[in-house]
Design brief:
Helix content is about 40%, strand content about 20%. It has about 375 residues and is of the alpha/beta class.
Length: about 375
């Protein structure tokens, strides 16, 4: 089975979980010479990044892969990552690799009649925890409270909120507001549900002493972890913070490849490593990162807040290890989750079933790709 074509599709869509803000993903479609096709995505986020990722895919990677054996996914991954030696393995290059690699695993699974998780080494579980994840509205307490009340009533076991609807009003900027918010949420969801909060660490809101103080302030509310408390690059700061507090630290969503994840894991500053297959060089790299996590007896969560393709890849990657604790899931209907595919993901009692269908287990609708495509 040879690769006949690789195409890229930048998509623009309004995100209802962000009150209609336009967001962007770039899809990749890998088609074999017998017509079998696999789909993947990268969470390119901004319009210029989505267009640039499409260029990298079609003009950089496609010419290297067309005509190659479609089943040699890991070799093809090495071909793509080898191409980036001059302009680097991170950023737009990693977006492109992520989308194509995901599509190739989907294609291979369909060709062999096997779900991706079996191709990755086999399932250790048939369902995985879905963590309902929303953006806080720090200026509308009633709306935020209602969201957590609704997620509780939907049967989720883990809920998460973070950031804010405007840069000027995000979780982490004001101690009193933050503590009042978390106290209300804990009262609403009760003691049985697990709660995660997410801070915009990339904006450098807290230094280490501030983070230590805030972690200790939040201890009474029994958080499962606090996400991205410091600048992602401040590995030494994360290690100092972890040594001083009880609440686990989650970080890693801003890493790009195995090497950067290896540095993070060795730093001693993380408890729950966040992995995004639509960003960090795809499913192939994620599997390698999971092995590193297992070796250090840490845990991981799948940072997946984009399309149903990324949700599918994340479910398969959680299914192959008992060190995975949760995956983000948009709790409300949204274009990339419910219009892009014929078979949207549906949680039941806070869990997602790992589908036994070949490949990623989702069917992309071409009309939806056409509807949201932009140039």
């Amino acid at each position: 089975m040879k690769i006949a074509s690789i195409e890229a599709f930048p998509l623009e869509y309004p995100e209802p979980h962000y009150k209609g803000t336009l967001r962007y993903v770039t899809l990749a479609k890998a088609t074999a010479d017998d017509g079998t096709a696999g789909w993947g995505e990268c969470i390119s986020q901004f319009p210029e990044a989505a267009l640039a990722a499409a260029t990298i895919i079609e003009r950089g990677y496609a010419p290297l892969l067309i005509g190659a054996d479609a089943l040699d996914v890991e070799a093809l991954w090495r071909t793509m990552t080898g191409r980036t030696w001059w302009y680097g393995p991170e950023g737009i290059a990693a977006f492109g690799v992520s989308a194509v690699d995901m599509a190739l695993w989907d294609l291979k699974g369909k060709a062999l009649g096997q779900p991706v998780s079996r191709l990755l080494g086999g399932q250790v579980r048939t369902e995985v925890p879905a963590m309902a994840s929303i953006i806080f509205d720090m200026e509308d307490a009633a709306w935020t409270d209602d969201e957590f009340r609704w997620m509780r009533d939907q049967g989720y076991r883990i809920v998460k909120g973070g950031w804010g609807m405007r840069p000027e009003a995000v979780f982490g900027r004001d101690r009193a507001t933050d503590l009042a918010l978390v106290e209300r949420i804990r009262t609403i969801i009760g003691d049985d549900l697990e709660l995660v909060v997410d801070t915009p660490g990339v904006w450098d809101l807290w230094d280490v002493p501030t983070a230590i103080g805030r972690f200790r302030d939040l201890e009474p509310y029994r958080l499962k972890w606090i996400e991205q408390p410091l600048l992602p690059s401040d590995l030494a700061g994360h290690a100092r913070l972890r040594a001083a507090v009880r609440t686990p630290i989650g970080t890693g969503e801003d890493e790009w490849d195995r090497e950067s994840y290896a540095r993070l894991i060795r730093s001693g500053g993380v408890d729950v490593v966040q992995i995004d297959p639509g960003r960090c060089q795809g499913i192939t790299a994620c599997r390698e990162v999971i092995r590193l996590i297992e070796a250090e007896h840490l845990h991981y969560s799948m940072h997946t807040w984009s399309s149903a393709l990324n949700t599918a890849a994340s479910a398969h990657l959680l299914a192959i290890s008992d060190r995975g604790v949760a995956m983000d899931l948009k709790p409300h209907e949204s274009p990339m989750q419910h219009e892009l595919v014929a078979d949207p993901w549906v949680q039941q009692d806070g869990m997602l079933a790992v589908r036994d269908a070949p490949g990623l287990g989702v069917e992309v609708l071409p009309e939806a790709v056409r509807r949201y495509r932009f140039t």
